[in-house]
Amino acid sequence: MENQNLCDMRDAWIGRNFSVQNKKLPVSFEYGGAPCPLPLFSFEGKAEGGTIDFTAKDPKTGLCVRVSGRIYEDYPALEWTAYLKNESNKPTENTPVLAHIRAIEARFAAAGEPAFRLSTNRGDICTASSYEPLEKWLRYGDSAHFSPVGGRPTSDALPFFGVSWDNCGVLMGLGWPGQWCAEFHSDKEGELNIAAGQEITRMSLCPGEEIRTPLVVLMFCGGDLTEAQNMWRGWMLAHNMQKAAGQKIEPFSSVCRGLTLTEKVDLDAIDEIKNNGIGIDYYWTDAGWYVSEGSWTQTGTWRSDPVRYPRTYRAVSDHAHKNGMKTVLWLEAERVSPGSELAGFEDWLLVLPEDKKSYRSDRMYPEYFLKNGQFATMESHRNQLVGGDALFNLGDDAAREYLTNLIAGIIEDYDIDCYRTDFNIAPLEFWLSADGENRHGMTENKYVTGLLKFWDDLQGRFPEVVFDTCSSGGRRNDLETLRRALPLLRSDFQVGSQCATGNQGHTYGLSGWIPFAGTGCPSDDTYLYRSHLCPFMGIGRSGDMAKWKKAAEDWKAARMHFLGDYYPLTEYSLSEEKWIAWQFHTPETGSGMVQVFRRSNCSENTLNLKLKALDPDAEYELTDLDEGAPSRYYGSELMKGFVDIRSKDAPGSAIIVYKKI
User: Labelling 133: which of 283, 401, 452, 458 has CA 20 to 30 A away?
Assistant: First the structure.
């Protein structure tokens, strides 16, 4: 479908759902125990000139609902956030209770087949099935509900959805680094109601108090999900990916040597990279460099351990810079361990009653999270809360400002190039435990708002610094977070040969939604590290320098193609008896690459592939990175299936890069 037709579809939808005349906004809530009373409010606003700006106010109670957003010129997309504020002129009067606040509630109608195809993906669960594609047909009476586990927005569920009908459709994304929900219900023949927002809300607003909803993005599209998601990928790269010093962040490689390191280990590792000409972009120091009692999980004293880093971490960053590398430094600023310096600020901490520590890692598995080489049962929740841990309350303005200054000092004093944020505890129980009567969801709302401001303030001070988002792997990758940080680790499912097939599935499932994700592989086994390859790639080593160089060379040959359009070439599967393959294609240059994997129990040693999106009349040069000698085909031949991939090994892999001649 032509882009102009899609923009017309979007604009018609805006006209129906944002209206002063009809007193209508695509938001909903209960107010004082009754459905949303917006028709009784006074209305003003407009949606034009690329902006959405509407205000509705209750003349009786002073509740003001403000909706602010953007209409994109280059994509058939719009976005908005709603703000609810008590503007009563009575200084002691709270609003009636607001409940079930939904940032979007809107209906979509099918003119033909009265059914809707709903597509999404599983979130990160630190297993092979993270990011598994999910699909469901919704007919009259059918429903679907999605929400994450424990308050981290991409734990078990992903806040990105595609709905298609009548050869058209809409993609929806949510921005909320907290507990969201999305509900799809066909309650009338040929109609689908979509509602989404902060999952738990039942609160009364104090005078002058304001809350916000999640960010909602809608992109109108045709019925082909692959083409729709490539349009989404383009929009993500153009309008959402963080910039450093105002410039696009190009894919980069990194090396991490593990946990609880020392200055000598870090310096020797940098020398090894430099002396062997590996060509790594960032040296990455992960958890455990700070003052603790021997465990990396003891967080809250944010300064270099003077025993292991006698010259502070600045000695490492200086050495990296001298040798042509930048630095990544890990912090988990929101978690506070007992006895740490931040633990002394008791008024700024959110704590749990002992009986509510339901995801405590020390109760589930005493030896970290692996048992006999396999991930423990509760590892899917990836909550590494230990006894006494608290949550630093970013919803408190004074606490947030203090933490902002503390982290800014670390970035400045240690001259850090990439600030790596981790978040290894599930916050929902902390938030709910702090809520009082008729205040359910308030702590979370203030915390999320404070977290986003924390990031914004740091980036305002350090516009050249790259920011990473990690949360026990890929647990915090909603739209608001992705606009501020790169997900350098899409999942913690990355260690050992058992992770190869899973990481192939991760790339297959996640690439339609997030084009700029990363991961790491600490092995020089060709099949294993190729299974992990991402735009932002941590490349490890296990002793063989030639293989380490080969891993880095494979990534360098592939890196820029990762940001092109994405086309699955086989079905999704985690079966060891299958092949799996996909293609990344850059239309502007006519170049791209194909990644192919023959799994361990696959009996077929040949796979025939039909490439996508090529110019049928143009000639293309193809190069297998393992064979070197290029071959030439016309685009029409490649799209008809003239590419046969042969692998004598199972498991085996191939990377084929191509360019238009």
Answer: 452
